[in-house]
C-alpha cells in the first residue's frame, strides 16, 4: 500500500523513501536496457537538452523541431500532435514585452485575467482551459509575470499533456524555454524608450573558453508608467548561464533567473450591472494609493546529458524555484447596485518548488521499424504559504469613485494556509518509424502519485489527500507526400483538486478531474521546409469537475462536465528570402454540459468563438533600401462571455501593430539596429479578459517604442 504523506516535522516522512525506491528502480531501468546490443545509427542519438541552442540565422522564423511535444528532437512534421513555436526572432520583431503578446500568435490561446488577483501568475487559456506556465518543461505553481529578455522561444503543445508532464488541465501547455550559454553566440547592448514614460536597457553578453566552456550573462532593467491611472511598473532581470562540455559525450548546462518586480495590481475597469463599459479605460476606481505588488523570484536549473554510446543516452535535471510576493493593493469584487466591494490586501505569499527528473533514450531497429524509447521518473515538491491580511470591505461607486480615506485596519483573513504537494512519477514513451519512414507512431503513458497536505492557519485543521493518475496518449502521422501528411491522436489528462477544499458532505475528498481529447489534422511544409502549416479539428471533454452539492449547500460533488471543440490553423516560416510570416485562426466552441454551479449550455468565460492573427515581415536585402525592414500584423477576436454565468459579453476587436527597422554593419564588424514599433496603430478600444463586471482588463491603446541595439 502506498504510504500517506505526513509533512509536519512531528510526523514521519516516508515520501523520501519512496523517492529513493523510484530512483533505484529508474537507475536499474537505465542500466539494464540492452544498449550495448542496439543497432548502430549514423545519427547523433544523444538525448537532446530541453533548452534550445541557436541553429539558424538570427532573423529566421523557420522552425523544424520542438522538444515540448516528446522531450526529444523529432521534427514537428513527424509528431502526431499540434505543437506551435514562437521563436525569439518574432518576439524581437514584435517587441513583445508580455507573454500574452507572444502566444497571441498561436491559435486557440487566450489570456487569463490575473492582474487583479492576489498573485499575477502567467496563466493562459489553451483550447478553452486555463493552464499555468511551464518553464523548460516544468509546470511552476507560482510563476509571476516574465521578463522576456531571458526567453529563447515559447512552445505551445495543444491537448492533454499529462502522459508526459503529469497533472495538468486538458487544453494543453505553454512552455517557455530559457536562453542559455552557446558556443556560437554574440554579445549585444540595447536601450529603449517608449510611450507612458517607458525606459529600458539591457545586455546579453557571451564568452567561450577553449571550446569547452561557454558563459552568458543577461541583464535587463525596465521602468515604465502605464496607460492606467496611478499604475507603474519596474522590472530587474539577472540571468547568468554556463554550458560545459565535460567530454565529447557529456555536457553540463546550468542557468539562473533572478527577477525583482514592482508590479501594479490592476483590477481593471468596471462595467455596469447591465454589462456596458463605464468611464474611460484609464480610470482607476480607488485613487492614487495602494496599487502595487513586490515580487522576488528566482529559478535555478542544472542539467547533465551523457551519451553512453551511439544508441543510448541519459539525462538528469534539477530545478529549484523560489517565489516571494507582498501586496499593498486595493482589490474589489461585484457589489450591490452600481458599486464594487473594495478592500485593502496586504497579503504575503511564499513558495519553494523543487523538481528532479532523470530519463534515458534508447534508439534501436526492430525488423522494418525503428524506435526511440524514452523512459524516466520525476519528483516534484511544492511548499506554498499564504499569509492573508485584509481590511473590511467598503463600497465604491463605479460612476463617481472617491479615493478611500484611512485608516484601514488590517486583520488576518480566512484563507491563510500552508499547502505542500509532492508528486512521484514514472513515464514511458515509444516513437516508431515504419514503411520507409512514412509512418510515424507515438505511444506513451505516465503514472503519478500525488500527496497533498493543507493547514489553514485560522483553524489549524490539517488535511491530507492522496491521488493517483494513470494517463496515456497515442497518435499516428502518415506522410502522403514528402510535403503533406495527415495525423490523429487521442490523449488523456489528470489534475487533482486542492487538499482541504472541494469537500463532500461526508468529509471525503473529491476525485481528480480528467479529460480526453480526440484530434485529427494535416501538416504541410513548403519551400524546402522553410514554411510549415498545421490544420486540425479536435474535441476535448473534461469530467469530474467539482460542482455545488444541490442537496447540501457548502459541499461539492463530482458532477460537472465541460466540452471544447473546434478547428485551428497555424502557419510559420519563410516564403522568400525576404518575406516571412506567422499566422493563426481558431474556431473554439465551448460548452458547459453538466453542472449545478454553472448554467448548462453556457460558453466558457474569455474564450472567443473566432480568433486569429497574421504577422508579416519583409527585409530589403539589395537596392537603395538595403538594410531596411518592416513588419505589420493584425490580432483579432470575436465577442466572448465576460464571466462563467454568461451575464455579459466583451465585444470583439481587431488590433493592428506596425514595425520598421534599419540594420547596418559598422567598421569593425559590429551590427547596429534601429527599430520602431507601434502597437494598436488605430488606437482601438478593446477588452482582453475579465472575471466579472467589476473587473475587466482593457487592452493597451496606441503606444510606440524606439530601440537601438549594438551586436558584436
TrEMBL record:
InterPro entries: Beta-barrel_TonB, Beta-barrel_TonB_sf, Plug_dom, Plug_dom_sf, TonB-dep_rcpt-like, TonB_sidphr_rcpt. The keyword Chloroplast does not apply. GO terms for molecular function: siderophore uptake transmembrane transporter activity; signaling receptor activity. Residues 1-38 form the signal peptide. This is Iron complex outermembrane receptor protein. It is a multi-pass membrane protein. The keyword Transport applies. Residues 76-172 form the TonB-dependent receptor plug domain. It comes from Haloferula luteola.
Amino acid at each position: 500500500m502506498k504510504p500517506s504523506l505526513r509533512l509536519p516535522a512531528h510526523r514521519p516522512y516516508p515520501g523520501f523513501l519512496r523517492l529513493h525506491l523510484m530512483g533505484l528502480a529508474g537507475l536499474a531501468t537505465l542500466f539494464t536496457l540492452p544498449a550495448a546490443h542496439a543497432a548502430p545509427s549514423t545519427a547523433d542519438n544523444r538525448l537532446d537538452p530541453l533548452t534550445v541552442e541557436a541553429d539558424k540565422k538570427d532573423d529566421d522564423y523557420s522552425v523544424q523541431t520542438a522538444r515540448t511535444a516528446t522531450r526529444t528532437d523529432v521534427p514537428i512534421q513527424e509528431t502526431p500532435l499540434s505543437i506551435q513555436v514562437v521563436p525569439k526572432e518574432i518576439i524581437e520583431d514584435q517587441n513583445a514585452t508580455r507573454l500574452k503578446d507572444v502566444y497571441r500568435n498561436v491559435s486557440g490561446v487566450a489570456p487569463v485575467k490575473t492582474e487583479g488577483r492576489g498573485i499575477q501568475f502567467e496563466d493562459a487559456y489553451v483550447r478553452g482551459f486555463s493552464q499555468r506556465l511551464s518553464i523548460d518543461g516544468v509546470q511552476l505553481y507560482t510563476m509571476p509575470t516574465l521578463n522576456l529578455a531571458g526567453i529563447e522561444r515559447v512552445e505551445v503543445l495543444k491537448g492533454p499533456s499529462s502522459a508526459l508532464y503529469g497533472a495538468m488541465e486538458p487544453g494543453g501547455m505553454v512552455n517557455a524555454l530559457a536562453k542559455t550559454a552557446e558556443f556560437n553566440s554574440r554579445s549585444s547592448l540595447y536601450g529603449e524608450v517608449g510611450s507612458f514614460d517607458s525606459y529600458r536597457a539591457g545586455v546579453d553578453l557571451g564568452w567561450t573558453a577553449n571550446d569547452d566552456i561557454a558563459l552568458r550573462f543577461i541583464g535587463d532593467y525596465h521602468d515604465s508608467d502605464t496607460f492606467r491611472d496611478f499604475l507603474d511598473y519596474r522590472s530587474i532581470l539577472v540571468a547568468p548561464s554556463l554550458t560545459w562540455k565535460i567530454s565529447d559525450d557529456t555536457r553540463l548546462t546550468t542557468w539562473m533567473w533572478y527577477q525583482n518586480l514592482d508590479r501594479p495590481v490592476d483590477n481593471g475597469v468596471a462595467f455596469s450591472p447591465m454589462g456596458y463599459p463605464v468611464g474611460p479605460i484609464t480610470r482607476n476606481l480607488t485613487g492614487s494609493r495602494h496599487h502595487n505588488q513586490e515580487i522576488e523570484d528566482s529559478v535555478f536549473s542544472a542539467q547533465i546529458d551523457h551519451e553512453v554510446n551511439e544508441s543510448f543516452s541519459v539525462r538528469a535535471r534539477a530545478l529549484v524555484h523560489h517565489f516571494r510576493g507582498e501586496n499593498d493593493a486595493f482589490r474589489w469584487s461585484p457589489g450591490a447596485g452600481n458599486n464594487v466591494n473594495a478592500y485593502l490586501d496586504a497579503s504575503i505569499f511564499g513558495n519553494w518548488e523543487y523538481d528532479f527528473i532523470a530519463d534515458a533514450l534508447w534508439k534501436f531497429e526492430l525488423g522494418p521499424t525503428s524506435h526511440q524509447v524514452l523512459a524516466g521518473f520525476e519528483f516534484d515538491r511544492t511548499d506554498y504559504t499564504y499569509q492573508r491580511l485584509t481590511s473590511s470591505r467598503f463600497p465604491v461607486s463605479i460612476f463617481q469613485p472617491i479615493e478611500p480615506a484611512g485608516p484601514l485596519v488590517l486583520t488576518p483573513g480566512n484563507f491563510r494556509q500552508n499547502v505542500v504537494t509532492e508528486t512521484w512519477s514514472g513515464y514511458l514513451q515509444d516513437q516508431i518509424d515504419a514503411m520507409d519512414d512514412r509512418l510515424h507512431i507515438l505511444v506513451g503513458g505516465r503514472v503519478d502519485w500525488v500527496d497533498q497536505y493543507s493547514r489553514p492557519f485560522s483553524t489549524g485543521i490539517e488535511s491530507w489527500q492522496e491521488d493517483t493518475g494513470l494517463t496515456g496518449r497515442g497518435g499516428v502521422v502518415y506522410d502522403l507526400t514528402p510535403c503533406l501528411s495527415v495525423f490523429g491522436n487521442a490523449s488523456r489528462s489528470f489534475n487533482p483538486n486542492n487538499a482541504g477544499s472541494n469537500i463532500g458532505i461526508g468529509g471525503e475528498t473529491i476525485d481528480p478531474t480528467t479529460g480526453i481529447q480526440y484530434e485529427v489534422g494535416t501538416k504541410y511544409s513548403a519551400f524546402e521546409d522553410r514554411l510549415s502549416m498545421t490544420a486540425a479539428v479536435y474535441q476535448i471533454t473534461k469530467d469530474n469537475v467539482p460542482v455545488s452539492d444541490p442537496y447540501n449547500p457548502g459541499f461539492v460533488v463530482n458532477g460537472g462536465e465541460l466540452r471544447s471543440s473546434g478547428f485551428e490553423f497555424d502557419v510559420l516560416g519563410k516564403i522568400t528570402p525576404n518575406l516571412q510570416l506567422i499566422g493563426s485562426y481558431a474556431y473554439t466552441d465551448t460548452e458547459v454540459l453538466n453542472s449545478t454551479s454553472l448554467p448548462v449550455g453556457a460558453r466558457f468565460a474569455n474564450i472567443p468563438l473566432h480568433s486569429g492573427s497574421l504577422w508579416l515581415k519583409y527585409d530589403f536585402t539589395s537596392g537603395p533600401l538595403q538594410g531596411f525592414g518592416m513588419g505589420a500584423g493584425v490580432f483579432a477576436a470575436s465577442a466572448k462571455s465576460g464571466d462563467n454565468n454568461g451575464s455579459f459579453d466583451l465585444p470583439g476587436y481587431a488590433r493592428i501593430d506596425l514595425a520598421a527597422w534599419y540594420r547596418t554593419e559598422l567598421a569593425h564588424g559590429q551590427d547596429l539596429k534601429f527599430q520602431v514599433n507601434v502597437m494598436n496603430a488605430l488606437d482601438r478600444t478593446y477588452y482582453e479578459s475579465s472575471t466579472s463586471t467589476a473587473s475587466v482588463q482593457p487592452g493597451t491603446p496606441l503606444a510606440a517604442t524606439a530601440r537601438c541595439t549594438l551586436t558584436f
